[in-house]
Amino acid sequence: MVEYTFTKQIFAFLFPGSPRVNSILATFYISSIPNFILYFVPPDIKPSSLNSLVSFAVGGLLGDVFLHLLPHSFLGETFDDEVHFVQVDKQKNVVIGLAIFVGFTTFFVIDKLMRVANGGEGGHSHNHKEDIHNDNHDHKDSGSSTSFNSSNNDSTLRQRKSTIEKEITDEEPETRTPSNSIKLSAYLNLIADATHNFTDGLAMAASFYSSPSIGATTTVAVFFHEIPHEIGDYAILIQSGFTKRRAMLSQFITAIGAFLGTFTGIMIEEFSREHHETENLSLFATGNSSLPITEDLSSFNASGIWGTGVVLGDLVIPFTAGGFLYIATVGVIPELLEVTGKFIKDLRQASIEFLTMFIGVGMMAIIAWNE
Which residues touch 277 (CB under 8 Å, ≥6 apart)? Predict the structure, then answer.
C-alpha cells in the first residue's frame, strides 16, 4: 500500500495536468532525458552493455503491451471502486484486433522500405558497431588467403607480404573516413528514428486520454526503451563521421517527430471526444436519452466504425500495441539472439539479458497490479 501510494504520488507530480498537458509533458520527458544522457555515454560503448539495456527495454515494452495496452483495449477503463464497464460486442473486438494488426504491419512496412532504400542493410537496430569491424577483418582475411595461395617461392612470399602490409597500412586512414553507403545509412536511420518518435508521440496522447495510469505506465515503458534506442543511433552517427556535438544535435532534431505525433494524437482524441459528445447531445435532444431495459444494448452507441461503438480515438491504443510488439519481437529480440561462439561468455551474457528482461516485465507488472 505504501509502495502504491508512493508511485501514485510520483506520477501525480510528473503529470499534474489534463490529458493534453500530460501527454506533452510525457513527450518532453522521453525526448529530452535520454538525449541528455548521451553526453555521458562514450561512443565506443561495449555491445554487451548495450544489449543488457536493450533486453531491459524489451521487457518494459512487452510488459506494457500485455499488461496495460491490450487489456485496456479489450476490457475498457477501470472506474472508481474497481468497477469495470465492458461492452459485449464481438464486432468491436474484431475492429480492435485489426487495429493491432495494422499497427504491427505499419512498422513492418516502414522497416522493410528503409531496408530497401538502404540497399539491403539492416533497418532500425541498436547495435551498429559490427559492420565496420567485420569489413576490415574480411578484407584482411582475403589479403592473407591471397598471399598463401600465390606461390611457394620464398622471395615471392616476402614480396607479397611486404605488398600486403603496405596495402593494409595505406588503407588504415580510409577506415576512419566513412563511405557514402555508411553516411546514407546514418541519414536513413535518422529518418527511421523520426518516424519511430512520431509513433511514440501518438502513444503518449492516446494513453493519457485513456486514463492517467495507462499514460504513466506507457511513458515509463517508452522511456526505458528510448535510452538504448538513442545510444544505438548515437553510435551509428559517430561511426558515420558525425562529431559528438553534431550527433547529439541530430538526435534532438529527430525528437520533433515525437511532438508532431503527440499533437496529431491530441487532435484525433479531441475530435473523437467532440464527436461522441455531439451524438450524446443529439440523443437527449430527440428524447432518446434512455433505452428500455428489454432493448438490445448492442444497438446503443453503435454509430462508430463499421456500425460498432468504436471511434477513431479508440484505435490509437491497439495500434500502438501492435507497433510495440513489432519493435520488441522483430526489431530488437533478433539482435539479442546473436552469439559470439564462446560458450561461457555467451551463457553469462544470456543470463544477464534474461535477468534484465524479467526486471523490465516485473516493473510493469508491479505498476499494473497496484494501479
Answer: none
